[in-house]
Write a structure and sequence with these properties.
Elements lengths: L7 H11 L4 E5 L2 E4 H17 L7 E5 L4 H12 L3 E5 L5 H11 L3 E4 L9 E3 H6 L16 E6 L9 E5 H15 L7 E3 L6 H14 L3 E3 L7 H11 L3 E4 L1 H10 L12 E4 L6 H10 L6 E6 L6 E4 L24 E5 L12 E6 L6 E2 L3 H7 E2 L2 E10 L5 E6 L4 E3 L2 E3 L1 H8 L5 E9 L9 E8 L7 H19 L5 E5 L14 H9 L10 E3 L3
């Protein structure tokens, strides 16, 4: 892999010089070439510069999936500042909190603009553009490339600071792992405010000089994602496990040809072997879905299965996330800080140029996460003798029972195959008697037509108990059946385990739902 740029802005300028008329991005019918993107971003950067946006500043972009968002991202970087893409669809109160958290010098809105002291609409900025403007200097590797607002599954969201050096290191190592090149065609439905959508499907295509087709992120667009992938002969895609899982159940494969697809990353949440099996079988694309592991604090990816590599699973059914990227070191540590042996579960720690610089305005958490140059991820897993990384999940998600750690995904895989179950998750509950052990609780979203009365619900609960017993040799302490979309998730689709545990402990789970059943209550 010969692709090597110091910054993604440098990559954009290089492609604009070498292939100005080549397609860079397409969103619906809106398209832009590399040459047009450079020129548009320079003109918009001039308007930002005139408003005092410069090196070391932060600029919030409250914008969705659109070519205008991509123009604005590069314009902010060319001006020397760091963009923060913020989800425009969230409630006004949450939106205000995100903006205040990152303290931007300017907030750019796509459409309607709330009352913000330093807010401006994109249309106003366009009227201030100047053609022919050039910055005195382009961003340096040590400059901040962007800030990524974390999902908030562990509590309040934070703003991770990523340098151009870290971004370039991640883009290079991931391009090597995927074998990405300029004749690839990227396609994605992941939102641009998510690190997966921003890094893999906005920055990475520009880094290697490939076109990217982006689709607004809605559940109804999963079919559009796959049909467009078929139409344009897309070669690289990706998304979290639930996207593939929903598509394998709801999207009609008729007329969809994914034979050109060679790499479909599955990451962002625990990977289920059943999801991979069902998707590849339904869309006749064996060997396409490649599990991976990453987090915003490592820019994006830490490990991924190589193209053509056989999928590996351990005895418990946990799917390998492949070996670490070539430019990253991964070490597993036990609770005492000792380096674990192969196959021994502990905390995943990572070192390399792709690691973030810290959290904005949060030195204490930064110090906790970054120790002696190593990123302590808070995720637990192990490396096998071949160097494959197996991820068990966040420490807070694992359940302590009878002196051993229970891995929720093992149980969820079995429960999701029960007739009538739409989706399940497993949580630990600490009972009032305080024995130190956690009770294992299965929360399953069930299809309304399969749970029409108490008899049907009882049958589903019994089937869940049997499925779990067959998977891990013991039954759950409680099975709770709820209607679809009851399990709390972030806007990125990740389960809010802490919130789920709390509402369960307070007896509020499913309180207002038409379908609710508990083997205990």
């Amino acid at each position: 892999m010969s692709i090597r740029h110091l910054t993604v802005v440098e990559a954009l300028f290089a492609h604009a010089d070498e292939r100005p008329d080549s397609l860079a991005y397409a969103v619906d019918d809106d398209r832009i070439t590399f040459g047009e993107l450079r020129d548009d971003a320079l003109a918009l950067a001039a308007a930002l510069d005139a408003r005092g946006v410069g090196r070391g500043d932060r600029c919030a972009l409250v914008m969705g999936t659109a070519i205008d968002t991509i123009r604005a991202i590069y314009a902010v970087q060319i001006a020397g500042a760091a963009p923060i893409v913020i989800n425009p669809a969230q409630p006004a109160a949450a939106l205000g909190r995100r903006i205040r958290m990152v303290r931007p010098i300017l907030t750019v809105f796509q459409d309607d603009m709330p009352a913000e002291p330093r807010g401006v609409s994109l249309d106003v900025l366009r009227n201030e553009e100047r053609q022919g403007w050039r910055p005195a200097v382009l961003p340096a590797p040590s400059d901040t490339a962007y800030l990524q607002v974390t999902s908030g599954t562990a509590g309040e969201p934070k703003a991770a600071i990523l340098s151009h050096k870290s971004l370039a290191a991640c883009l290079h190592s991931s391009a090597v792992r995927l074998g990405a090149r300029s004749d690839d065609i990227f396609i994605s439905w992941v939102p641009l405010h998510h690190d997966f959508g921003l890094v893999r499907f906005t920055f990475a295509p520009c880094f290697v000089g490939s076109p990217a087709y982006l689709i607004p992120p809605t559940v109804s667009n999963f079919e559009r994602w796959l049909r467009l992938a078929s139409e344009v002969s897309a070669t690289i895609t990706g998304g979290p496990d639930f996207g593939y899982r929903i598509a394998s159940k709801l999207v009609d494969p008729a007329g969809i040809d994914l034979s050109a697809m060679r790499y479909a990353t599955n990451g962002g949440e625990p990977v289920r072997a059943s999801t991979i099996r069902d998707f590849e079988r339904r869309f006749s694309c064996p060997g396409v879905i490649r599990p991976g592991y990453g987090l915003a604090e490592a820019t994006l990816g830490v490990s991924a299965v190589r193209p053509g590599q056989n999928l590996q699973s351990d005895a418990a059914g946990c799917v390998s996330c492949g070996p670490p990227y070539d430019e990253l070191d991964v070490v597993i540590l036990d609770e005492g800080g000792r380096r674990c042996e192969y196959g021994e579960v502990g905390e995943i720690t990572v070192q390399g140029d792709a690691i973030f610089d810290g959290y904005l305005d949060d030195p204490d958490t930064t110090t906790e996460m970054l120790r002696d140059g190593w990123l302590h991820t808070g995720d637990f897993g192990y490396l096998d003798a071949e160097g494959e990384l197996y991820v068990m999940g966040r420490k807070r998600v694992l359940i302590k029972r009878a002196g051993a750690m229970v891995i929720p995904r093992e149980i969820e895989e079995a429960v999701d195959r029960v007739d009538g179950v739409r989706f399940s998750t497993v949580i630990g509950h600490v009972p009032d008697h305080g024995s130190g052990d956690e009770e294992v609780v299965v929360v399953a979203e069930v299809r309304p037509e399969a749970a029409v009365d108490d008899e049907a619900r009882s049958r589903i609960a019994s089937d869940i108990e049997a499925a779990m017993s067959g998977a891990v040799a013991f039954k759950p302490d409680d099975v709770v059946l709820v209607r679809p979309r009851t399990i709390p998730r972030t806007r990125n689709g990740k389960i809010k385990h802490a919130e789920l545990k709390q509402v369960y402990a307070e007896g509020l789970l499913g309180r207002d739902d038409a379908i609710v059943f508990s083997t205990r209550r």
